[in-house]
Design goal:
single chain; 243 residues; alpha/beta; Metallo-beta-lactamase, Chain A; 7-stranded mixed beta sheet; 7 helices; binds zinc ion
């Protein structure tokens, strides 16, 4: 059968049109430079039939690399460590998990087996244990400033929010706040997973972040894009609008 050329063109243009509507699936591991020696990395999991991104960070110091939170997709641990090794010629030496949910704790056992010192608060440890999540090897009991190489990073518990144990991590030199899941991204239209949330306390917790960290250049949410400090104001609006 001979198909006229114009029909073929029509066919391809239709197929082309359909293809354009299908979004390209995201790379399983995305790493983007934020500022100075700080990087944001993103992995994905399927949650309620959707591919959901999860953000974590790492800091490159002259004493090695610090992860703030894990790859949600544990299949991306090796690619992440390889990529860090290739890009920075450094090893990952420690990790801090910011609450007990899987997007912050899955793969902690693998990290520990690799000799990486894994940390969480005592409260996160207890909730992870209770909910059968992976456990960090070391615990801290109150807000703690870690000095690693030339950098300091400060953990801060501002109160209950997304979970009862959610902490944030502040990178002092660069005035960057990793909000984790206590902070939604600036385009978020709802509060996401609030199964373990404290909606009454959450606004107070956000105000505590604002009071404590008055000079912020970037705020990184646990999920989604954007890194504007306006995310804190947006968060207060979202909480205010929540029925
Ligand atoms: Zn989360």
């Amino acid at each position: 059968m001979i198909i006229p050329v114009f029909l073929l063109q029509l066919l391809f243009s239709v197929v082309g049109g359909i293809q354009k509507e299908v979004p390209a699936s995201p790379a399983p591991l995305e790493i983007s430079h934020l500022t100075g020696d700080l990087y944001v990395y993103t992995t994905y999991q399927t949650y309620q039939d959707q591919r959901v991104p999860s953000n974590s960070m790492y800091l490159v110091t002259d004493q090695g690399v610090v992860l703030v939170d894990v790859p949600w997709d544990t299949g991306q641990i090796e690619p992440l460590l390889d990529s860090i090794s290739t890009r920075h010629q450094k090893k990952v030496v420690m990790s801090i998990s910011t609450h007990w949910h899987e997007d912050r704790t899955s793969g902690l056992n693998i990290l520990r087996e690799k000799g990486i010192r894994t940390y969480s608060t005592q409260k996160t440890y207890e909730l992870s244990l209770k909910n059968k999540k992976e456990l960090a090897q070391f615990q801290f009991h109150s807000d703690t400033t870690f000095t690693i190489g030339q950098y300091q990073l400060e953990t801060y518990y501002g109160g209950e929010g997304h979970t009862t144990d959610n902490i944030v991590v502040y990178f002092k030199k660069d005035q960057v706040l990793f909000g984790g899941c206590a902070v939604k991204d600036i385009e978020a239209t709802d509060l996401g997973n609030i199964q373990d949330a404290n909606l009454d306390q959450w606004p107070l917790t956000i105000r505590n972040f604002q009071n404590r960290f008055s000079e912020l250049r970037y705020v990184i949410p646990g999920h989604g894009t954007g890194h504007s400090p306006e995310a804190l104001v947006h968060m207060l609006n979202l909480l205010d609008q929540h029925p």
